[in-house]
Write a structure and sequence with these properties.
alpha+beta; five-stranded antiparallel β-sheet; 25% strand; 12 helices
Length: 518
Amino acid sequence: MKIKNIHFIERHIEKIILGACALFGLVILWFFVLDSPYTTKILNEEGIGPDRVPQLVRKQADDIFADITNPKSPLPSIPVPPYTSMFRERVERKPLSVASLDPLSHPGLAGPFQFEEPVQKRFHLPTPPAPDSLVATHSYGVLPDQDALAEQLAQRDRLASSLAAATATASRYSELVPVSSPRDFRYVSVAAAFDWDAWRERLRESGDGTVPVPEIWWRNTLMLTDVILERQRLDSLTNEWGPTETIAALPEAMNLRQAHDTWLSNEAQEVVQIVRDRQKSIARPPFVPMTTESTWQAPDTGIDPQDTPVPAVGNTARPGTSDDALVTAPRFQEIWAHDLTVQPGRTYRYRLRALVYNPLFQKRRLMDDQRETYFHKLSLESQPSDWTDPIDVDPEHWFFAVKGSERSSTATIEVWRVFDGRPRVQEFEVTPGDTIGGQIPIDTAEPSANLDLRVESMVVDIVRSVAGAGFDSDSLGVLYIDLATNELHTRNIAADQASPIRARLREQAEAVTVAASD
C-alpha cells in the first residue's frame, strides 16, 4: 500500500543520516589520519606540521652556524676613499695665487677659474754664525751639603715640581764635585756674544737652486735652544792640545740635546712654548748654588743682557695675544756655559757653539729630502767660536819662598791651599833635605781635623845668583826637586814676594775675613 502525504526528508532520513556520518568520517580521516590539524608558519613556509618543526629548526641552526664560521663576509665590498691622503694633500696645498684671477673690479671673470698646481721649493738653510767676543773666568767654590743644596735649588727654581726633584738634581751636582768635606771645587765659566743680526742676514740669503726661508716662518722664532761648551786639555809632556770634549750641561739646565727623533704635533707645540718661555735660562744657565764663603762672578763680555729687542716690523699679533708677541731676539745676546769638572793644576782652552731654533721645524711645505732632514729637527748648530786663551786652573797648593839666609842655609816657605772656600796659609822653616809643607790643625766640625799642606817637593839648597823676572841675577833663591817628576827647579825669593798670585790669595783671604767679621 502506497504511503501518501509523507515529507521528502521523512522519506529519506535514513539516507541523509548515513551520508552525514560518511562525510564526518571522511573529515576525521583527512585531518587526523591523512593530515594533522596543527600547523605553523616557519620562514615564509606555511602548513608546517609538528613532525617537521624539529627538522626545519635544525636546518636553520646549521645554516646560521655555517654563516658564522664562514671567513668570507656576506656583506658586499664597499670602496673607502683615501681620506687621510686627501686631507694631507689639502693641508699642504699651496694657496691659490691671487694673480690667477682677474681683478674684482671687472664686470665679470673672463673664462673659467685657473687653478695653479702647488709648487714645492727647496729652501736655503744656512749654518748659524759662530759666537764671538769670548771671555773666560776660573775660580773655586764650595758646594753646600746635600740637604742645603736641594733646598736652595727648590727655592730658586719656580718650575721645580717638588723637593724630591730638587734633591735628585742636587745628587747629580754631587757627582760632578769630588767627594770631600767641605766640598771644595774649581770651575771655569765661558761667555760670548751671539749675533742675531748676522743670523737674520743669513736667513734672507738664497743659494744655488734654493730660495730664502719665508721670513714669516722665523721672524718671531729667533730663539736659542742650547749653548754647548767644548774644551781641550794641554798635555804637559808633549805641549800639544788633546781631543775636543763636549761638556755636559749642568743638571739644573734645560737640556734638549737628546731630543726625540720624531715629534708628535702636540709635543712639538709644547716644546716650542717651553723654549720660548725659558730663553733667559737657556742662554745664561744659572750657576750651582754655593755656600756663603764663595761667590760666582759672571764673565763680562760687554754685552748688555737687557739689550732692546728688534721690533718685528710688518707682523701682526695673533688674536688674544699682547704686543709682547711682536718682538724678536735682540741684535746681540750674551750666552755662557760652565765647566765644574776641571782638575787642579791643569791647562785648558774652550770654545762655544750656539743651538738655535730650526725655522723648518714642523713645516710641511718641504721637498722630500728636506722634510726627511729638517721636519723633526728642533735645533741648528752654529759654527764653533774661536778658542779662548789657555786657562791655567789653580793647583791644589801654592808655595812661595818669602825669606832666606845663605849663611844659615834656611828659608821660609809660604804654603797656601783653598779650604772651605777660603785661602789658608802657613809658613814653614826649611833647610836642605826638608820636604816642603806639612799638616796643621784647623777648626772644623770634625774633632782633631788637620789641613794637609804637604807639597811633593824637597829643598836641595839655598843659593844665590837665581834669576827672577825683573830681578837681578844675584838674588837669593831656593833650589828644590819636584818629587813627582824628579826635576830640579829654583824659586827666586824677591820674585815670589812680589808674585801677583800671592797678592791675589792674600786679598781673597782678607776679604773673607772681613765678610766673616761683619
